[in-house]
Design a protein that fits this description.
Largest sheet: 7 strands, antiparallel
CATH topology: Chalcone isomerase
Number of strands: 9
Shape: globular
Helix content: 25-40%
Strand content: 25-35%
CATH class: Alpha Beta
Structural class: alpha+beta
Mean pLDDT: 85
CATH architecture: 3-Layer(bba) Sandwich
Length: 197
């Protein structure tokens, strides 16, 4: 009887295993192929690994609607970024690094206009441990939602904020040129190399 049950379970185990493999994998970190945010279907556009010196910081993935081109990724279009952390980080580090990177990607008057919103998202960040995930989701008409392990920490209203904040990874002077390329091109440039901060 046990042998019969085992034989019957094998196809089920194989199906589960196949489902687990269906998606994007970056250095052993799994990301889903598609996500649904409200009424929006978002597809995996690309992903890569970010390192600082000898430390792996996070594996990141970018999700966009199929009809959004790389050229208008920063426009008023739905988008989601998922960050799987490979090391611990303190909440204050997000604010410090974010501000420095934004200064390389925005004019001073732009940052002044969204200062209140920047302060608000910096206040939302919490300490993160290895294996935890932050997500940053922008939906037109709703705003930019920050979540930690799927728990929503808050929403920043307005496209003006999203247009600037996503430049950290997708702007002219991103945190990493090769990570930006990997995010927009199905992880292409990432294969065989690692990102350097």
């Amino acid at each position: 009887m046990k042998k019969i049950i085992l034989i019957l379970m094998v196809p089920l185990i194989m199906c589960i295993h196949s489902a687990e493999l269906h998606g994007a994998e970056i250095k052993g970190v799994y990301f889903e192929d598609t996500l649904t945010e409200g009424n929006e279907a978002l597809s995996f556009r690309g992903g890569g690994l970010l390192k600082w010196l000898f430390f792996k910081v996070y594996a990141a993935a970018l999700y966009l609607p199929e009809d959004v081109s790389n050229g208008n990724v920063l426009e008023d279009k739905p988008k989601k970024m998922v960050f799987h952390f490979l090391s611990d980080m303190k909440a204050e580090q997000f604010a410090e690094s974010g501000e420095a990177l934004l200064r390389n990607n925005a004019w001073e008057d732009e940052l002044t206009q969204i200062k209140g919103k920047l302060d608000a998202i910096h206040a939302m960040y919490r300490d993160v441990k290895k294996g935890e995930r932050y997500s940053l989701t922008y939906i037109p008409g709703k705003g930019t939602e920050l979540a930690l392990n799927s728990e929503v920490l808050g929403v920043i209203e307005g496209y003006d904020f999203a247009a600037i904040y996503y430049r950290i990874w997708l702007g002219e002077n991103p945190v990493s040129e090769s990570l930006k390329y990997a995010l927009l091109n199905n992880g292409e440039k990432w294969k065989g190399e690692e990102m350097e901060l």
